[in-house]
Amino acid sequence: MAVAVAARERVESERATPLRPVDLLLAGYLVVVSLVAVVRAPGLPNCWWLLAAHALFGLLLYLLTRPGLGPLGRSIREIYPLLLLVSLYSELDVLNGPGGTPVYDAAVQGWELAIFGVQLSTEWWRSMPSRFWSAVLHAAYLSYYLIIVAPAFYFAARRNLVALRHFILVVMSTFVLCYLVFIFFPVAGPYYVFPRPDAWFLDNLFARAVYDTLATGSSYGAAFPSSHVAAAVAATLSAGRGSRSLGWTLAIPTVLLSLAVVYCQMHYGVDAIAGLLTGAGVTAVVERLDTQNYRERKRGTVKGQK
Fold first, then answer.
1. Collapsing DSSP states into helix, strand and coil, what is residue 276?
2. In angstroms, rounded to a whole number, what is the distance separating the alpha carbons of residues 254 and 256?
3. In the structure, how many helices (H) and strands (E) does the chain have?
4. What pLDDT does residue 2 have?
5. Cα–chain-centroid distance for residue 151?
6. From the centroid of its chain, how far is CA 147?
7. What is the C-alpha separation between 220 and 183, in angstroms, rounded?
8. Where are the domains of the chain?
9. How many other β-carbons are positioned within 10 Å of the β-carbon of residue 298?
10. Residue 224's closest CA among 93, 124, 108?
């Protein structure tokens, strides 16, 4: 089997790699973002820089689909969408920069009152004050970065390409859907709208790490739906398709994160609900559409598949 896998990888390295669904997904998304950038550039001049960045994506995709990729190139080819996430998220701040476009927090706050009767993000931690849960849930908030990345490296290490490609397609589809909503229906969220929680609530290592991260990497208008919740749910469900034990392992931090985004006053309650529905919905749709990977798994063409 090892010899067969090595031989197949050698053949694949000698021919051009066809575009995969995730490549087409990202290319289509960047076309939409480019058009939005052109429209908004008169009021937000930095949008012009996005066009240059998107041209570089085209170059990257060209290089990653050329024949003759070595082991490192093939590895980058598989995981490059995850490597682009920081840049794609940062673009939202350019497109929605404070004051650049209207936000719809008033509408979302109205939904919040209609469903919960209060602004849950400001009232929950006040009604149930706890230093312990502040630390635990801020730590869970940070676990997001591990949840959306670790499964990819797990499947790559096990050379389970079917599970790896399916995982990345599900996660990136979830992000793309969330980001499109952020662009056309920007919501600032409690982090920007409401005063910070009391000092005692934030007086722990994990809370300080969260706020340090947000101070340097948060994008304005990216609250509804919660991409933290959506991506974590999608990552957990799709990881479970390739490894049930991995899926169950990620389930606990995903549940805690879904609570943390509201309790720690980062998102409205409806943001978290919408994120949950988005992550589960995208996973279900991609599961039905990702027939090519399913056929590969049935044929057992990738090592480790039965």
1. helix
2. 5
3. 17, 0
4. 47
5. 13
6. 10
7. 10
8. 2-299
9. 11
10. 108
pLDDT on residue 278: 97
Lowest mean pLDDT, pick from 40-44, 92-96, 147-151, 221-225: 40-44
Q: How is the chain classified by DSSP, letter by letter?
A: -HHHHHHHHHHHHTSPPPPPHHHHHHHHHHHHHHHHHHHHTTT-TTHHHHHHHHHHHHHHHHHHTSTT--HHHHHHHHHHHHHTHHHHHHHHHHHHTTTTS---HHHHHHHHHHHHSS-HHHHHHHHS--HHHHHHHHHHHHTHHHHTTHHHHHHHHTT-HHHHHHHHHHHHHHHHHHHHHHHHS-B--HHHHSPPPPGGGG-SHHHHHHHHHHHHH--TTB-SS-HHHHHHHHHHHHHHHH-HHHHHHHHHHHHHHHHHHHHTTSS-HHHHHHHHHHHHHHHHHHHHH-HHHHHHHHHT-STT--
Chain centroid to CA 118: how far? Answer: 28
In 3D, which of 145, 51, 135, 41 has the Cα closest to residue 97?
A: 41
The token duo for 197 is: 């929680």
- The pTM for the full model equals 0.88
DSSP letter at 233? Answer: H
Gap between the Cα atoms of 282 and 290, Å rounded: 12
Residue 182: DSSP 8-state? H
Cβ burial of 42 (10 Å; 0-12, 13-18, 19+) is exposed
